[in-house]
Structure formats: C-alpha cells, structure tokens
Structure prediction request, 289 residues.
Amino acid sequence: MWAVPLTTTLTIRYLSLTMPPELRETLSAQVGHPLKAGDAILISFPTGETLLIDSGMPHSGAMLYARLQELGVAKLDYVLTTHPHWDHIGGFLTILPQIPVGVFYQSPVVHGESEHYQELQELLQTQQIKVVELIEGDRLQFGLVRFQVLNPAQNQIPSSKTLLSTAEINNLSLVLRLDYARFSMLFTGDLYCEQEELLVEKYGAERLHVDVLDVPHHGRATSSSHKFITTVNPQVAIISHEDQGQPREERYKELAIPVVALADHGEILITTNGETTTISAGELTISLD
Prediction:
C-alpha cells in the first residue's frame, strides 16, 4: 500500500555545492587537479517522502548537510547513488551519520580500490541502513511517481574483484527514467557516448524521449552524442557542473534545446503536478508544454 498523497506537487532540486574559490584552489592544489563539487539532487514526492540522488564530493559534505537543514530535511526516506565515484558518493560520508536514512539504493558495481567507496560501505553497515542494489529492469514507485532502471544490464556487471577503469564505472551508471502523469525525466549519471548508443539501440525514442534530460557526465565531451540527444529530444537539458561553458552545452543549443546550468544560475528547481511543469533557477523561469 502506497502512502496517501499529501499534495500533487513533485519537486526536483539540483543543489549547488560550489566551494569558495580560495578553498577550491587550495584543495585542488593538494590533490593535483581541479576539483568539482559533483552531483546532489533532492527529490520531494507528493507523498511527503524524500529521495537524494548522489551527494557531491567529500569536501562538499558540510555544504550539503547545511542546505538540507535549511530545507527542513530531517530524514531522507530514500538515497540513491548513480555510481561509486567520489564526486557522487563523497557527501554521504558527512550526512549519513547525521541524517536518518531509510533505504540506500546503489548499483552492484564495486569500486574496491576507492577509499571513499570502502568507507561508505562500512558506514552503511555501521548505521544498519537497508541497501538495495538496482539493475536494468528494476522499478521503483513512490505514490504516483514511477522510476524505471534502464542501465546497467545484468550481463554487464563485472566480478567484484575486477579492477575497473573510470570509463567502465561511468558507463555502468544507474540510468533512471522518472514518470509522473504527463511529466518525464531521464537521470543519466556519468554515461559515456558508447553506452548512450547502446541504450538508443535497445530502447529508442519510445523509452528515452522525456521532457527533461539530466545531461550525462556534467556536460563533458565524453558524452551527449548527437544520436542520443536527438533520440531523447528533451524540452530542457540540465547541466550539473559549477564551471561555465561545458563542452557539450553548444551541441544542445544547436539543436534548439534550452540548457539550464548550475554554473550560470545556481540551484535549479523543477516543480510539477504531472500536468504543468516549471523550471526555475535564479532569475530564469521556464514553463514546459
């Protein structure tokens, strides 16, 4: 039995976890490469339940916790990580000990050489949080909001002892299609072009076409193939990255697809009742057909 809807409103909020420039420079110098904030997307369902998709970098954890407190999030009913890279799981190391979590969703992909991944798995055990692994074909439902898992396929999951490259882990990202009445959205993690092409061949526009696209791999050049974009054919594309002018941004604009980027507008809020949808970010407001 699903919870009785408390409202008809579904909100999807891209949290801005951009660090002060001085701190970012200092930390980047320490690790030897430019640091990004990473993804953190908070969904509030009409049932009143919450889902956090990814959590940003470890050094973004304090900012993420503070923003959740500002939004009045005292509990996360569900948490989901698209894949085990540190710019997607790092913030969990800060918030899991401080905010109660109901269910933690992840893919079966093991990133054994990552200290952050190992620490997260230990934390999940210590906190006795229920962990559910998702693969292609799984479905989740929160009241009238439905998710379909489109990636990764079971036959692509390697042995837990296999050492995986960055590209391999990114291509095994959880890809989820959200449907709520007439509204639809695709979450893509850090998918690369080659995996996008496989999904296009497998699902076509029938399953991939949506109103809003979470742009793969933060708008980087590894992703957003022309065939994938034209198959998904979204009304709006969202780029979750704190640096302006990501390489693939122009490709969307050339196809007359409006782009809303964290770097340009700060926090992005999608509000829908399943029939009418508004995307707001800073002074920008977009209403979808």
